[in-house]
Design a protein that fits this description.
Length: about 50
């Protein structure tokens, strides 16, 4: 569709490392953490990979 742009949501510098920390906790499923935070699991997976 012409003229429609998707806006990217920006996350604070504090949010990303905290999300990664939560995702790396033993016994926590990454998809559950992502769902709890209201973000896509692929996004948090990328943040974990970049750490």
């Amino acid at each position: 569709m012409e003229g429609m742009m998707r806006l990217r949501k920006k996350y604070s510098a504090e949010f990303k490392p905290e999300a990664v920390k939560l995702a790396q906790q033993p016994g926590k499923a990454l998809i559950t953490v992502a769902s709890d935070l209201g973000i896509h699991d692929g996004l948090i997976r990328r943040w974990v990979k970049c750490q």
